[in-house]
């Protein structure tokens, strides 16, 4: 088996992978990802104990125990480019032998659960509610750099999306990936379910206008109106499609859960987004520690 060169897999002087600055024994089989580095401690404060605390750049990692279950929470920063780093490095930590720089014969499947914030694209999904992403549909360009195997429904869904929204030609071709069936079944009561669109930015890519005009001013209306059988777009954010696409391809179980802090149809913003996120953290941890 060929070895992975030092330029491709960067391991620092303490034997940790470069960006996350974690060693293989420092992460748990179940990973919670958050965008905001400050949110890591907001999750780990609920742990019974914390045994590992690492920080490098925007990547903060805490590993500990909750109800005898070992959990890791790691901050990704914002955007699919950061998810490219985090997902590949988490996978490397469990599936590459750092001593020999070779892929392990027996691969490990992680549970990777994003707990983040998002904007609703449907009037009946109000601020301060929670959404579980059945699919991550990326209108950024990250997943186009990888070989993905979509099933027939996913292929049809993307084609219908391109046709209905006219997001092609001047834009990256959309990519799609699905949530883990083994995880999503635990997140039903108290959650809306639907497609999450992942955008490559916060302003123009999400239809916001400050001083610059938009190349696609009908974006939000087209996303809200989209339907494919029973599927509709519930929300958009900046990480989910990359987590699902990379995670699924690497063989991990992935789920994205969002606190809705804005409703782009009613033009409302949460009056206490921090409280909504805290409620989502507590609800998610209760489910994770009891069921996964």
SSE arrangement:
Blueprint: E1 30-34, H1 39-44, E2 49-56, E3 59-66, E4 69-75, H2 80-95, E5 96-97, E6 102-103, E7 111-120, E8 130-138, H3 152-165, E9 175-178, H4 181-184, E10 192-198, H5 219-225, E11 227-228, E12 231-237, H6 240-250, E13 253-263, E14 268-269, H7 273-291
Helix pairs in contact: 2-6
- Tell me the span between the first and last alpha carbons: 33 Å
Poorly predicted tracts of residues: none
User: Could you say what the CATH topology is called?
Assistant: Rossmann fold
* Helix-strand category: alpha/beta
Biggest sheet overview: 5 strands, mixed, barrel
The gross shape turns out to be globular
Helix content: 25-40%
What is the number of beta strands?
A: 14
| Largest sheet strand order | 7-12-10-8-13
Query: What's the rounded overall pLDDT mean?
Result: 97
Number of domains: 1
Name the beta content range.
25-35%
The arrangement of helices and strands along the chain is EHEEEHEEEEHEHEHEEHEEH
Assembly type of the chains comes to single chain
CATH 4th-level superfamily: Nucleoside phosphorylase domain
Alpha carbon gyration radius: 19 Å
> What CATH first level would be assigned?
Alpha Beta
By CATH, the architecture is named: 3-Layer(aba) Sandwich
Treating each run of at least 4 consecutive H or I residues as one helix, how many helices?
Answer: 7
């Amino acid at each position: 088996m060929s070895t992975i060169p030092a330029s491709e897999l960067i391991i620092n002087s303490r034997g940790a992978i470069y960006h996350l600055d974690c060693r293989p024994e420092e992460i748990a089989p179940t990973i919670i990802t958050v965008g905001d580095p400050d949110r890591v401690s907001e999750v780990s404060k609920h742990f019974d104990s914390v045994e590992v605390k690492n920080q490098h750049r925007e990547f903060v990692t805490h590993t500990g125990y909750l109800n005898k279950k070992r959990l890791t929470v790691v901050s990704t920063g914002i955007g699919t480019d950061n998810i490219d780093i985090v997902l590949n490095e988490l996978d490397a930590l469990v599936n590459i032998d750092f001593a020999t720089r070779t892929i392990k014969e027996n691969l490990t499947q992680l549970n990777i659960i994003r707990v983040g914030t998002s904007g609703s694209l449907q009037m009946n999904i109000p601020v301060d509610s929670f959404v579980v992403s059945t699919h991550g549909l990326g209108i950024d360009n990250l997943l186009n750099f990888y070989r993905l195997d979509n099933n027939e429904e996913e292929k049809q869904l993307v084609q219908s999306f391109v046709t209905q929204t006219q997001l092609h030609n001047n834009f990256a071709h959309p990519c799609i990936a699905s949530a883990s069936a083994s995880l999503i079944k635990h997140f039903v009561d108290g959650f809306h379910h639907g497609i999450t669109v992942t955008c490559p930015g916060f302003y123009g890519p999400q239809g916001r206008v400050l001083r610059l005009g938009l190349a696609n001013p009908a974006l939000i209306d087209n996303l809200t109106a989209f339907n494919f059988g029973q599927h509709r777009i519930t929300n958009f954010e900046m990480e989910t499609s990359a987590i699902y696409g990379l995670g699924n391809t690497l063989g991990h179980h992935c789920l994205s859960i969002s606190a809705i802090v804005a409703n782009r149809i009613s033009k409302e913003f949460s009056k206490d987004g921090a409280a909504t996120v805290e409620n989502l953290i507590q609800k998610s941890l209760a489910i994770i520690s009891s069921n996964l």
